[in-house]
Design goal:
467 residues, mainly alpha
Length: 467
């Protein structure tokens, strides 16, 4: 009797405890669910775009002008040379594919940065800040690189746009040299680079994108005029297409890859102009500034690459302006136009380098705020001098283009955006069949392969050039 009674009491106690545990578990689950829903609701309520405080915001038309000026520079003039390394059929197909991939990567990059801004409830994150925060919430495999994420991304961004500025110095000097050689005196290319120092310092002293907008608008008008003149020479007396190669040797594709990436991608400028917009929501709309701008850019690049290669074949130089007749007055006008537009683009591309070096790392070390303008101008002067020195060291335009594109843009434009989206969607999932994860892994592989091969071939070509 006692044993049965004790057993009954034990069963009753266990039953009560079990019910209590179930209720506590249910309460915890409901609490977590409510907290999650509350957090999600709060995240949905917070719109980073509405909390941005931009000092001198740009309008949509100004932003499009910056976008086109930042994306259409010496790169479009290098497309015939790129097609010479791929063949016209390969060039058309691969340029279209790389263009679509580039636009997709820019979309996932900006969308991922926006999502992280919502989660952290901040109006804006830089590329490097977003990478660090993304890695912190991403797969454990990335934890080891978190400490170096910020300086690594900043370093690549600053170096890439610094490299573009070096290419621009070479391009402007080449354009001026052809005209001076014809009318005045034949001088070494490096001497013409010396003459550029003062004009570059003047345009680079403009520190605000808002004040650069009128220059970009004028440059775009000049650019269209110059491109029209170049097309006039390209379409004049075209040879038979049968004299050109549809598919080049595969060993020449890495040089093509680097040149096209350089031409199509301007990650830092694209992010900078989005940050300074008055209405940033218009940037990524289906018919927004990025899609419209990239459609114009991609069409122009394919047009110039195909017809420029058709006209000049294997003789296509690092800039097609070097192929058009040197003694023709109209050709000389085009060269002057492109020299001016590239001079303006120098300040736009160099804006990213100066912004990272000064605003992010050095300005905080100068306690006296009244001296900030002076010190920033000193930093900008040093950047101009360094681009000059690098341009003097490697004055071969096409090889420099390919090296900068392969080394930097495969990482900044393909690998980093894919990794960032992997990290941002680590908790929320990658969709049916984990397709977003698979796509991003393929992007990382594509960027790594193209970057390694392109960099290796470009460095080898530069070494061979000096031997």
């Amino acid at each position: 009797m006692r044993r049965d009674k004790a057993s009954t009491q034990t069963t009753l106690i266990l039953s009560i405890m079990s019910e209590k545990i179930k209720m506590e578990s249910k309460l915890r689950t409901n609490g977590t669910k409510c907290a999650t829903q509350s957090k999600k609701h709060n995240d949905d309520d917070y719109d980073p775009h509405l909390h941005r405080n931009v000092k001198n915001p740009t309008t949509n038309s100004q932003t499009l002008a910056h976008f086109l000026k930042g994306s259409i520079g010496s790169g479009v003039l290098a497309m015939p040379s790129a097609f010479a390394n791929s063949g016209y059929a390969n060039g058309l197909l691969l340029t279209f594919v790389i263009g679509i991939i580039a636009v997709y990567c820019l979309h996932i990059l900006i969308n991922s940065m926006y999502e992280l801004c919502k989660r952290k409830r901040v109006p804006y994150l830089t590329f490097s800040e977003a990478m660090k925060i993304g890695l912190q919430g991403g797969p454990p495999i990335f934890k080891c690189v978190i400490p170096i994420a910020t300086p690594f991304v900043d370093g690549f961004l600053a170096f890439y746009h610094f490299g573009i500025c070096c290419v621009y110095v070479v391009f402007i000097a080449e354009s001026i040299k052809q005209i001076v050689d014809e009318y005045l005196i034949v001088l070494d290319l490096r001497i013409h680079m010396c003459f550029l120092l003062v004009p570059l310092l003047l345009i680079y002293s403009i520190r605000n994108l808002k004040f650069l907008a009128p220059f970009s608008a004028v440059a775009n008008v000049l650019l269209l005029t110059g491109l029209g003149i170049v097309l006039y020479f390209i379409f004049d007396n075209m040879p038979p297409i049968s004299e050109r190669v549809a598919f080049q040797e595969i060993t020449r594709i890495p040089i093509y890859f680097g040149t096209v990436l350089f031409a199509l991608e301007a990650v830092g400028v694209i992010l900078a102009i989005e940050e300074n917009m008055k209405t940033p929501k218009d940037y990524l709309k289906p018919f927004g500034i990025m899609n419209v701008g990239m459609t114009i850019v991609l069409t122009l690049y394919m047009l110039f690459g195909f017809f420029g290669y058709w006209k000049y074949g294997e003789g296509a130089l690092g800039s097609v302006t070097l192929n058009i007749p040197q003694k023709d007055v109209l050709a000389q006008v085009a060269k002057i136009i492109f020299a001016i537009t590239t001079w303006i683009s120098y300040s736009l591309q160099g804006y990213v380098t100066a912004d990272i070096v000064w605003n992010k790392y050095l300005s905080k070390r100068v306690k006296n705020i009244s001296n900030h303008t002076l010190y920033e101008l000193v930093i900008r002067t040093c950047i101009v001098l360094l681009t000059f020195c690098c341009a003097v060291a490697v004055p071969n335009l096409s090889l420099f283009l390919s090296l900068v594109g392969s080394f930097c843009l495969s990482i900044l434009g393909l690998i980093f955006p894919a990794i960032l989206q992997i990290c941002v969607q680590y908790d929320t999932g990658y969709g049916a069949w984990r397709y977003k994860l698979i796509v991003n892994i393929l992007l990382v592989a594509f960027g790594a392969l193209g970057g390694i091969l392109g960099t290796y071939v470009s460095v080898k070509e530069i070494v061979d050039f000096y031997q």
